[in-house]
Amino acid sequence: MKWKHLINQKVSTYWIERIQQDTSMFSSLQFLGGISIILAFIPWSWRAKDVAGETVLVTGAGSGIGRLIALRFARLGCRLVLWDVNDKGNEETAKQIKALGAYVKTYKIDLSNRDDIYSVAAKTKEEAGDIDILVNNAGIVTGKKFLECSDNMIQKTFEVNTLAHFWTCKAFLPGMMERNHGHIVTIASSAGYLGVNGLSDYCASKFAAVGFDESMRFELEMMGKEVKTTVICPFYINTGMFDGAKTRWPFILPILEPEDTVNKIVDAVLCNQHIVMLPKSLYFFMALKGVLPCKVLSCVCYYFGVSNVMDNFRGKSTKTD
Fold it and tell me: Which residues partner with 166 through β-bridges?
């Protein structure tokens, strides 16, 4: 598996050196385009890195996508560290991981509390060792119009969906940089690229998470560090978190199934993919956003039901993913 690691390392760093040495922007774009086309025809399994024996920390691991991500990494031979405020759900995830014969440690944590994050992070490093892959998955949603959101809920949305990413990265990124090895995964949302009616606080928090990932990726690249980042921007996933949300054209913008979504997330991490939008039709819509006038974009969102997707939102009593 060593050759796979070398290929990933060369592909991810050589283009930076090439652009720095070449003053021709056109030539640099040609080079990048060529690399992208070549990689598109190489099966992901050939490019996937071997993560067996690595320690993976998943926040929000007590249910939904977090649980499934943890189980997928366990099947790949990883050691798992599970963080969640839901102790019962977290232990159930751990039970399923133990049944697979994998190492697992669980910690109860309040991700809206910075001091708690730093405290549990220190305990995690002491008991489970260095973290190789950090999956910032935990999230909450109010599903209310802006003026219906209480100040406390807006603040908590940002604390869990955005600020927690800063504190977990501050806790574990230095170790990754020292070892020159690691991967930070941000489970964001398509709502981190396009504002949605009825999700003002959630969208703002996910926009921030996407921006944080992008800025951090550039920082790490410019420092020449082999610490990777991946940001996941899915449409709504059928986990209960967005119960009641409906899509007008499901064959274009379907409600995603958790198992298939998690497989695509982990495959992207294994291939060091930077940005993942699910379904793939989102790439087209986000490109349109960059060129369409605002009024035309509003009409497109209305036609495809994006503006009304939250009209029947119910969510679930515990809105953690």
Answer: none
Query: Helical H runs in the chain?
Result: 2-21, 25-40, 44-47, 64-75, 87-99, 114-128, 151-158, 164-179, 200-222, 258-270, 281-291, 294-303
CA-CA distance, 226 to 178, in Å (whole number)?
A: 10
Buried b (16+ CB within 10 A) or exposed e, 19-41: beeeeeeeebeebeeeeeeeeee
59 exposed, middle or buried (CB, 10 Å; 0-12, 13-18, 19+)? buried
Instruction: In whole angstroms, give the CA distance from residue 16 to residue 226.
Output: 13
Strand, coil or helix: what is 256? strand
pLDDT for res 22:
57
User: Which strands sit side by side in the sheet containing 275-278, from one edge to the other?
Assistant: 104-108, 79-84, 55-59, 133-136, 182-187, 227-234, 275-278
CB atoms within 10 A of CB 170: 13
> Longest Cα pair distance anywhere in the chain, in angstroms?
57
| Cis status, amide bond into 258, omega within 30 of 0 | no
Active site residues: 202
CA distance 156 to 241: 16
Q: Compute φ and ψ for 275, nearest 5 degrees.
A: -130, 130
The dihedral over CA atoms of 290, 294, 298, 300, expressed in degrees to the nearest 10, equals -40
Assess contact for 234 and 185: CB atoms under 8 A: no
Q: What is the mean pLDDT of each run of 10 residues along the chain (321 residues)?
A: 51 54 58 59 72 98 98 98 98 98 98 98 98 98 94 98 98 98 98 94 98 98 97 93 80 93 97 96 93 93 85 61 45
β-pair partners for 183: 133, 228
Residue 152 and residue 145: Cα distance in Å, rounded?
Answer: 14
Structure tokens at 78: 């990883």
What pLDDT was estimated at residue 244? 72
Distance between CA 244 and CA 266 in Å, rounded? 27
